[in-house]
Amino acid sequence: MSARREGPPKLRLLCLHGYRQNAGSFWARSGALRKALRGRAELLSLDAPHVIVAQPGEAAPDPPEADGRGWWFSGPEGTTFHALEEAASCTGLEESLEAVAKAFLEQGPLDGLLGFSQGAALGGILCALKQRGDPRFPFGFAILVAGFKSRAADHHGYYQEPICVPSLHVVGETDQVIPARMSRELASQFTDPVTLSHPGGHFLPASAPQKNAYLEFLDQFVK
Description:
The protein is an alpha/beta fold. The protein has a single domain, classed as Alpha/Beta hydrolase fold, catalytic domain (Rossmann fold, 3-Layer(aba) Sandwich), CATH 3.40.50.1820. It is built from 6 helices and 8 strands; from the N terminus they run E-H-H-E-E-E-H-E-H-E-E-H-E-H. The protein has helices at 23-29, 31-36, 93-107, 118-131, 180-187, 208-218; strands spanning 11-16, 41-46, 50-51, 69-70, 112-116, 141-145, 167-172, 194-198. Strands 2-1-5-6-7-8 form a 6-stranded parallel sheet, sandwiched between helices. The protein starts with 10 loop residues before the first strand and ends in a 5-residue tail after the last helix.
């Protein structure tokens, strides 16, 4: 384990929350991780641009989220999202890419991304765009927790070539929302991925073994 550094945060990470979350709820749920990364990284949360409107007969999330948001929708009406759905088309991604690009302009410089669930799937797409030379996204690495490859037909093009961006993929072996195989499938799109598995489910793990892995990965980028 590397020695802890004291002083102000060395790295700045843009955080992309999961579906039905928002910047505030992600911040509340990431307390243990923020504590684990204290002195090494600063986490900056961003709201997805799309507010989720409950549909008739749709079960409420547990726990309920106020002002739940999403990065894109996969349903035919542009109002729902399911990670396992192989949607013929989707809506909302372009607005999300614009929101992230705006964050880089207004909050930059930013060193890396930290994405969770749908936010991690968005992170994978951002890595593909960065590799293509998209100047809107000047970051150096990504930490993708419970990530997956988007199954929307509109997004298949993002996975046509290996992604060379340095990445840490955090996989929950008992995740019932995003199965571990889906997170590993996303990791396989990267040329030299680091994979961190944990025995838990759909959350941001931050116990001692995960903390050490985060710090070891981040230390590569501290100047």
